[in-house]
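Field reference: sequence -> structure
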Amino acid sequence: MVKEEIDVTVISLTWNSEKYVKRFLDSLLDDLKKSNLSYEIIIIDNGSRDSTLDMLKKYKSIEPNLLYIPLSRNMGTTFSRNIGIRMARGKYVAILDSDTVIPTGTFEKMLEAFNEIKSERIGIIHPKLIYPDGTFQESARRFPNFLIKVARLFNAEKTRKKLESIPRVLREEITTADYAISAAWFLKREIFERVGVLDEKIFYAPEDAEFCARVWQSGLEVWYYPRVTIIHGAQRLTKKRPFSKLALLHLLGLLHFWWKYWKFLWIRRKCKPQN
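Structure field:
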């Protein structure tokens, strides 16, 4: 059966998100309803044990375009998001973290960006992210490598910035980036048909870097678009708990990413001018 296409599918994950999900859904629904776009919202819950499911149930009762899928346990970011990706009917897909706040006009401006950016190879467009206190969040970067992770671990910010930062991102200019964190991705659904869904061998991260690497390998580009700003809570769970099970899974994800793309990453770092 052919899916009835709509304008936008929003995909988000929740996991014990009672502190964030109300602000997220209120801001998201407000913007979507003002945009005059046809939309659906698919939320996959990763086995929440707080009041998140009760809140989702309440929103579902008043929002017919919202669907939530409760999982029995935390299945990570890739398996769970892929459920939504496979179900999506939108011409455009927005992947948004449930700890984001969406300002009015976001969706209209982000879809206009697909025409504003002068490239026929757009894969992903990523807006500017800021922390709740208004400070800049460096969310579009160079691909992670071992030295970057060591610098992050020891809070060696000067070294980290030299290895990872993209100057045009720091200057808040429209530019390409190696990858952008998956807290806010806007892309056409056809991109998944071209490059595939998220790599389920990665539980938590760097699923965003892995997917962006495939986007680049397919001949498409990842763009940073700072003319739209989204507030992102950025829970950074592995940094808060560096010796947790989640941190171990993140490390395994990094090793998988490096093994899978070592040749691509080496060639790209040697040949690509650093902007």
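Note: The first strand starts at residue 6 and ends at 14.
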